[in-house]
Amino acid sequence: MEESTENPTDPVDNGNHVETGSSSSRSTVEIDKYGFTGGSQYTNPEFEEISVIKIRQREVKWLTMLDNWDLWMAKKFQKVKRRCRKGIPSSLRGRAWQLLSGSNLLQKQQVGKYMELLQSQAGTNTVEDIEKDLHRQFPFHEMFAQRGGTGQQDLYNILYAYAVYNPKDGYCQAHAPIAAVLLMHMPAEEAFWCMVAMFDFYIPGYFSPGLEVVQVDGSVMQGLLRAVCPIIHKHMEKHNVSPMLYCTEWFMCIFSRTLPWPSVLRL
């Protein structure tokens, strides 16, 4: 599950461009609408373009829904689901994720807990393990391109706090890309509670030492492959390719390092 450890030159934000290199030799790099300057996550400007009018219409619908969230979830859940599948407007994605996961309630129930966790002692080697992984998380994204920058500092804090919050599982390398995606859409404390909600409510047991839950889901994946794509399933079996060989990173990182970026944001 290792990404390339190569890190790009630290960027200086300049509107929709980033200037890289020394003062004597500078090059201008385009930033896509998601904040990437390159890498596999970079999205071509022509990809999935939606008109401004359409975006504004969706934002109005989502604002109405978010402002009356409990009512919509109770009486119009199917419409909420359909709108999620169409895509949440970028400007409201962070707020929507918090409501969808229930992390906003967790945060309200434990005011001050995040700062308390940051001031607590983590398990042995936690700091070293987290620091080794920081520069591997989306190094072509403007938030994480600078070593030791604000983005990496916030990412470290989220991962450290979770390791203290859940000492049984501690820090897992797969936590980092998930935390990074959340941090792109909300402040650090909100991203922490969103991660807690996801791990506790949606993928519990995924990060236990034996990966038993991931293995179960891998078996489910194998059954689906057999039913839907029997030719591919037969080919995999012929070459002794078990689901754990290709599903582990997909599932544990929630496809954040695998799918095209617009698809990642819809999961």
Automatic annotation (TrEMBL):
<dbReference type="InterPro" id="IPR035969">
    <property type="entry name" value="Rab-GAP_TBC_sf"/>
</dbReference>
<dbReference type="Pfam" id="PF00566">
    <property type="entry name" value="RabGAP-TBC"/>
</dbReference>
<dbReference type="GO" id="GO:0005096">
    <property type="term" value="F:GTPase activator activity"/>
</dbReference>
<dbReference type="GO" id="GO:0031267">
    <property type="term" value="F:small GTPase binding"/>
</dbReference>
<protein>
    <recommendedName>
        <fullName>Rab-GAP TBC domain-containing protein</fullName>
    </recommendedName>
</protein>
<dbReference type="InterPro" id="IPR000195">
    <property type="entry name" value="Rab-GAP-TBC_dom"/>
</dbReference>
<feature type="domain" description="Rab-GAP TBC">
    <location>
        <begin position="87"/>
        <end position="267"/>
    </location>
</feature>
<feature type="region of interest" description="Disordered">
    <location>
        <begin position="1"/>
        <end position="29"/>
    </location>
</feature>
<keyword id="KW-0343">GTPase activation</keyword>
<feature type="compositionally biased region" description="Polar residues">
    <location>
        <begin position="17"/>
        <end position="28"/>
    </location>
</feature>
<dbReference type="InterPro" id="IPR050302">
    <property type="entry name" value="Rab_GAP_TBC_domain"/>
</dbReference>
